[in-house]
Design brief:
- The relative contact order is 0.06.
- The termini are far apart.
- The radius of gyration is 30 Å and the shape is globular.
- The protein has a 3-stranded mixed beta sheet with strand order 1-2-3.
- Helix 2 packs antiparallel against helix 3 (38-45), helix 7 packs parallel to helix 9 and helix 16 runs parallel beside helix 21 (434-461).
- With 463 residues, the chain is mainly alpha-helical.
- The chain folds into 3 domains: 9-148, MgtE N-terminal domain-like (MgtE N-terminal fold); 161-261, CBS-domain (Roll), CATH 3.10.580.10; 292-461, SLC41 divalent cation transporters, integral membrane domain (Tetracycline Repressor, domain 2), CATH 1.10.357.
- It has helices at 9-12, 23-35, 38-45, 50-59, 62-72, 79-83, 86-107, 110-118, 122-131, 134-145, 151-154, 168-177, 203-208, 232-242, 262-280, 292-319, 321-326, 329-357, 366-396, 399-429, 434-461, and strands at 161-163, 188-191, 197-201, 226-227, 246-250, 256-261.
Length: 463
């Protein structure tokens, strides 16, 4: 006899889909929330990795999100808060309240705790710090005292540091018996009596060595600590260059303060890359979950700047209004020159900004790179001049018009290649982030040069 029992949510979903966020999983959780099947929601959501749980919260509507937070409140992993989009995180924090938020921060590792508290503003931040346990409060206050985007904000205080005169056996016993140790660590730092790092020992090398061996005999002495005030982008560069998994952080006296691990460096690299990409497009932040008015306001400034530069290009066109009236074909063809120059310049600009961020473009090789991009722009300009000139000749039956647009194409694409490199280099020399305003200057250059070259040549040779 067949049973009339309906399968629960877990039975509807294949076992390999329980972990990881899939559209089917989101649908089932939504249905369970709507039907009030709390046990099914908890059975599906609690086993998730915290990043998947954060994605789930972001995929839900505001009311569904509120319901899910209430269902998971007793067992919500604190790390979920660090993986949420800022707009969604603000909603969740407001719903949790200071008591539950303080409890979550107390459970986080020191670097995550400092970062999360830093996301709050003014009175909210002060109230949360006061609600923390004394030890965690001291760590958070110390971390917030360091400048933003520095090693001091990025480092975690949980690390393993031992003296050089210890033996392998003493170190292993210390790791087994000490309660307050990080859950995961990649290096054991060996320090001198002043607590300055003099080397490191990996757990793998420690376990392969005999118990009576002194640490000073097996340490890797090539330890390159970073200052607590070093910019996080420079820290990421060092870790990437040396293939490190952790790097010690020291104060001005060289004393060991904390450690930055590779998982945090990956976040920095991702954050810096995303930030540069958004800034090149004139967007301060993604705003995917922000209110419409906030997103509109954040994008208005750069659009206004673009409008001003567009008027500059229009003024150039206005200087040749009589030429355009007498040769109507120019009005049809002139957007081609500006568009090709803009695209060529954007290609060069993207490469240059990335090379600056990766420290591949430096004063020592700047001239060579500028010369190369100029030659590339000239070569592409000549190639497209032939194609565009022939097309214009066939279209309007005028060799002169084909020659003029071809010459303008060469000039504009050469200037685009040079400007795409010179603009970010110049902005960096002046201390301005090249990713912020390079695209505006580049667009202005390619539009103005393109229209000026095309219409100027037309006025000189066609009339």
């Amino acid at each position: 006899m067949e049973s009339d029992r309906k399968p629960n949510a877990l039975e509807e979903l294949p076992a390999d889909d329980v972990y990881g966020l899939k559209p089917e999983l989101v649908r089932i959780i939504r249905e369970a929330l709507e039907q009030g099947r709390i046990d099914d929601v908890r059975a599906l959501a609690l086993p998730m990795h915290y990043s998947d749980a954060a994605d789930l919260l972001e995929h839900l509507e505001a009311e569904e999100r509120r319901q899910l937070v209430e269902v998971l409140r007793p067992d919500l992993e604190p790390e979920v808060l660090t993986a949420l989009d800022p707009a969604v995180r603000d909603e969740v924090i407001a719903q949790l309240g200071f008591a539950d938020l303080a409890a979550a921060v107390n459970e986080l590792e020191s670097d995550d705790a400092v970062w999360l508290v830093d996301q709050l503003e003014g009175d909210e931040q002060r109230r949360l710090i006061e609600a923390l346990e004394p030890e965690k409060r001291a760590i958070v206050e110390q971390g917030l005292a360091y400048p933003e985007y520095t090693a001091g904000r990025l480092m975690k205080r949980e690390l393993v540091a031992v003296p050089s005169y210890w033996t392998v056996g003493e170190t292993i016993d210390h790791l087994r018996d000490t309660i307050h140790l990080p859950e995961d660590f990649y290096d054991i730092f060996v320090v001198d009596p002043r607590h300055r790092p003099i080397g490191r020992v990996t757990p793998a090398r420690l376990l392969r060595s005999k118990r009576p061996v002194r640490l000073r005999d097996i340490i890797d002495g090539e330890v390159r600590p970073v200052p607590v005030t070093m910019d996080q982008e420079e820290v990421a560069y060092r870790v990437r260059q040396r293939d490190l998994v952790s790097v010690p952080v020291v104060d001005a006296a060289g004393r060991l303060l904390g450690v930055i691990t590779v998982d945090d460096v990956v976040d920095v690299i991702d954050e810096e890359a995303a930030d540069d990409m958004l800034r090149l497009a004139g967007v301060a932040e993604p705003g995917l979950y922000h209110a419409i008015i906030d997103t509109t306001r954040s994008r208005f400034t750069w659009l206004a700047i673009n409008l001003a530069t567009a008027f500059l290009a229009s003024m150039v066109i206005g200087m040749f209004s009589e030429t355009i009236e007498r040769v109507v074909a120019l009005a049809v063809l002139m957007p081609i020159v500006a568009s090709m120059g803009g695209n060529a310049g954007t290609q060069t600009l993207t490469v240059a900004v990335r090379a600056l961020a990766m420290k591949e473009l430096t004063p020592t090789n700047a001239l060579r790179v500028i010369g190369k991009e100029g030659v590339v722009g000239l070569a592409n300009g000549c190639a497209f001049a032939v194609l565009t000139g022939l097309a214009a000749w066939a279209w309007f039956g005028s060799v002169a018009i084909g020659a003029v647009i071809g010459a303008a194409m060469v000039i504009n694409m050469l200037c685009a290649g040079l400007a795409g490199t010179l603009i970010p280099l110049g902005l960096e020399r002046m201390g301005v982030d090249p990713a912020v305003s390079s695209s505006v200057f580049l667009t202005t250059v390619t539009d103005v040069v393109g229209f000026l070259a095309f219409l100027g040549l037309a006025a000189a040779f066609l009339l």
